Amino acid sequence: MKFFLSFLAVISILISTQNSFAADAVNGKELHDASCVTACHSSRVDGKSDDLYKRPNRRKSLAKLTMQVEFCNQQVLNSEWWPEDVSDVVEYLNTQFYHFAKTSK
Fold first, then answer.
1. Under 8 Å between Cβ of 94 and 27
2. Looking at the domain assignment, is residue 12 inside a domain?
3. Cα distances (angstroms) measured from residue 43 to each of 21, 39, 54, 80, 101
C-alpha cells in the first residue's frame, strides 16, 4: 500500500508539472522577432518578414520546420538558444503560420 501511495504521488507531480514543459509561443515570438526578423528575414523579403512563411516552397512538416529553426540558430544567427528556446520559436511559427499537427514531428 505504501508503494502504491508513493506511486500515485509521483504520477500526480508529473501530471501537474507537464504544462511547464510545453513550448511557449509568446517567448518564441519574442526570440523570433529579436533575432530572426532583424538579422535576416526582413532583408530577404523587402521588409515583410511574414512573407517568408507564406511562400509556396515553405517548410512542409513540423519536423522540417524544427530542422530549419535549428539550422538558423546554429549556422546563421549563432544565437546559442537553448533547446527550449528552439521549441518555443517552432511553437510560435507553427501556431502563427504553419498549423502542422503536433504529431507530425
1. no
2. no
3. 34, 8, 16, 22, 30
Confidence (pTM)? 0.71
Structural domain boundaries, residue 96: 23-104
C-alpha cell at 27: 517567448
CA distance 27 to 85: 8
Alpha helices in the chain (DSSP H): 2-17, 25-31, 42-44, 62-71, 83-93
Q: In the prediction, which pLDDT does 24 show?
A: 95
CA pseudo-torsion sign 65, 101, 97, 29:
negative
Bigger pLDDT: 104 vs 31: 31
Local structure of residue 77 (DSSP, 8 states): S
